[in-house]
Amino acid sequence: MKTQLLLDDLKFCTEKLLELAIESKWDLFELEWQKYNLKFISMPRIDWTELNEQERANFESVLLSIQETHLLLVSTTAAWHAELQSILQNSINSRKILDTYR
């Protein structure tokens, strides 16, 4: 039961990341990514042999949904890669200029 709640929470977090990426809210995306990453690494190992058929079906459904959201997230963020790279490069260059002329 605990694992189901954790999976549902991870699914919600993944959907939130996708929503933020679609809306180009990259600062919030970064904050949400940190939450997602903590949830992901704290997920317990799923022992499929200990689950009954209904639990396995539920877990599989949630995991497939997370996978689909990940695929959408990858394609959405890949579309912004060049723009994000440009923004980051401008930020780095600005910081270098500020450091040089202080």
List the helices and strands and how they pair.
Elements: H1 2-22, H2 26-41, H3 53-79, H4 81-100
Protein described:
With 102 residues, the protein is an all-alpha fold. It is built from four helices and no strands. α1 runs antiparallel to α2 (26-41). The longest helix is centred in the middle third of the chain and has 27 residues, at 53-79. It is elongated, with a radius of gyration of 18 Å. 6% of the residues are buried.
Shape: elongated
Q: How much of the sequence is in beta strands?
A: under 5%
Number of helices: 4
Structural class: mainly alpha
Roughly how much helix do the residues carry, as a percent range? over 70%
User: Could you give the distance between the termini?
Assistant: 57 Å
Multimerization state: single chain
- Rg calc: 18 Å
Number of strands: 0
Main pleated-sheet profile: none
- What sequence of helices (H) and strands (E) makes up the elements? HHHH
Poorly predicted residue ranges: none
Mean pLDDT: 84
Concise structural overview:
With 102 residues, this protein is mostly helical. The chain is 82% helix and 0% strand. Helix 1 runs antiparallel to helix 2.
Keywords:
102 residues, mainly alpha, 4 helices, 82% helix
